[in-house]
Specification:
- The structure holds two protein chains of two kinds.
- By secondary structure, chain A is an alpha/beta fold.
- Chain A has helices spanning 46-53, 75-81, 89-92, 98-108, 113-126, 142-154, 172-184, 196-202, 220-225, 227-232; strands at residues 7-15, 21-30, 35-39, 60-65, 68-69, 82-85, 160-164, 188-193, 205-210, 213-219.
- Chain A is built from ten helices and ten strands.
- In chain A, helix 4 (98-108) packs across helix 5 (113-126).
- The longest helix of chain A is centred in the middle third of the chain and has 14 residues, at 113-126.
- The mean pLDDT of chain B is 85.
- Chain B has helices at residues 15-18, 21-37, 43-59, 64-86, 93-120, 123-132, 137-166, 173-204.
- By secondary structure, chain B is mainly alpha-helical.
- The chains are: A alpha/beta, B mainly alpha.
- Chain A binds chain B through residues 51, 54, 56, 76, 79-80, 82-84, 86, 88, 90-97, 100, 103-105, 107-110, 113, 134, 136-139, 152, 156, and chain B through 1, 5, 123-124, 127, 144-145, 147-149, 151-152, 194, 197-198, 200-208, 212-215, 217.
- The complex binds adenosine-5'-diphosphate and magnesium ion (MG).
- Residues 16, 18, 20, 22, 40, 42-48 of chain A line the site of adenosine-5'-diphosphate.
Chain lengths: 236, 217
Amino acid sequence: MSSVKAVEIRNLSFCYPDGKTALNDISFELNPGERVAIMGGNGAGKSTLLMCLNGVLQGTGEILICGMPVVKKNYKPVRQKVGLLFQNADDQLFCPTVYDDVAFGLRNRGEREEVIRRKVAESLHAVGLDGFERRNAFHLSVGEKKRVALATALCMDVEVMALDEPTSSLDPRGKRELTDLLKRYSQAQMIATHDLRLARELCQRIIVLKDGRKIADAEAGKILNQKELIASAGLE
Amino acid sequence: MRHQFLDEHAYRGTALHRASGGLKILFSLAGILWVVGLGPGQAKSLAVAVLFLAGLTKLGKIPPGDFLKRMLLVFPIAAMIGISVLTVPRGDHGVQARLFGLVIAKALISVWILFLLTATTPFPVMLESLARMRCPKIFLMLLGFCYRYLFLMADEAERMTHALASRGYEGRWLGQARFIGHLIGMFFVRSYERGERVFAAMLSRGYEGPEHWRAYE
Ligand SMILES: Nc1ncnc2c1ncn2[C@@H]1O[C@H](COP(=O)(O)OP(=O)(O)O)[C@@H](O)[C@H]1O
Ligand SMILES: [Mg+2]
C-alpha cells in the first residue's frame, strides 16, 4: 500500500467550454496521509483542479487515485476514495436533514440501513456534532455546515480529501476548530486555500498555482519564505 | 435567517404534532376534497369545518398572528378566483354574491387545512410518510430540494434587491421594468449555477441517477 501514491497527476490541462484554459500542464503526486496546500489567488485554478480529481470535470492528461485512473469506468470506485468538499457548504448539503445528507453517499454505495445509521453517528461524532441527525442544514451555522460536509466525506472512508477553501467565510474561532479537526484525520488532504496561516499550520508541503500553471512545489517553510513568489501569486 | 420557514411550528409536542404523518396527510386530502365538493346550499357544513379547524389550530398551539398572515397572503388569489366566477352570469345578484363567498371560503379553508398540516408535521416526516404511501421517488426528491433551497433562494433574491436599493434604485414605474428584468436574469443565472454545483456534489458522492437513488426505505 505504501508504494501506491494517493494521488498522481500527470500533465493535466483543463479548458472550460468558453475557451478559458483553467489548468495548464499540471503534474504532481501525493503520498498517502500527506497534507498539501494548493495555493493561488482567485482564478488560479484551484477549484477546477479539485473538481478534476474525481472526474466531475474531465481534462486532458492523466490522474490516478490510489493507482486507479480517473476514467469513466472507474468513476464509481474513484468517487468512493475521494471526498470533495465544496467551498460553499450549502451546495453540498442538499438534503432535508443532516442524516440524509451524511447517508447520501452510503446509500449510493448500497449499504444496509443499520450500517448507514452506525456510520452516520460515528462520523458526526468525529466532527463533534453528536445528535445532529434530525437537524436541517438550513438552520446550522456556517461552521456547523462545514463540519457536516466533512462528515459526509469521513463516513465514506475516503483516502483523499479535497477541500476547497475550507476556512473561507468562517470566523476566527470557526477557523481554529476546523484546523484542529483537519489535523486529526489521517487521510491524504489537498487543501485549496489562499490563507497563508492555514497552509503554514496544516501542511508540510505547498503547491502554488498561478493562471492555471504550477509555479512552485516545495516544503511549506521554503515557499512561505519566498516573499516574491508569494506576491507574484497574488497571495499577499 | 429572517425568513419564516415552512415548518416553523412543526417541532412542538402537542397531540396534533405527535399524530402519525401519514394519517394527517390522508385526513388533509380527504378534508380538502370534501370542502371542495360542498355546494352552495351547505353553508352549515362550512361553518362546522371552520369550527373544527379552529379547534385543531388551538390544539396545535399555532400562533393566531402567523395563521392570519398566511391567510391574508392567499386572500388576493382566492378573491381573483371569486371574481372570475362573477363574470359568468348565473341568476340574480343574491346568487352571484353567495357563489362568490362560497368560492373564497372554500379556497381559504383548503389553505387552512394545508397550513395546519405543514405547521404540525416536520417536513422530513412528511417526506417519509409520503414515501410510505408509495409516492414516486423523483417527486420526493424534488420536494426535498424545494424545502432545502427555497428559503436560500429567497435570501438571495433579497440580497439582490438590497444591492439595487443601496445603489440608489427607487423603483419608479417605467424605469423599473428594465432593472426588474436584470434582476430576474441574474437570479436565474445564479440559481442555475447553484444547480450545477449541487449536481457536482451529488456526483461526487456516487449519485447515478434517480433510479438508483435510495432513501426513505
Ligand atoms: N464554469 C466556468 N466557465 C468558464 N470559466 C470558468 C468557470 N469556472 C471557472 N472559470 C475560470 O477558470 C479559472 C479558474 O477558476 P477556479 O478554478 O474557480 O479558480 P480558483 O478556485 O483558484 O479561484 C478562472 O479564470 C475562472 O474565471
Ligand atoms: Mg475556487
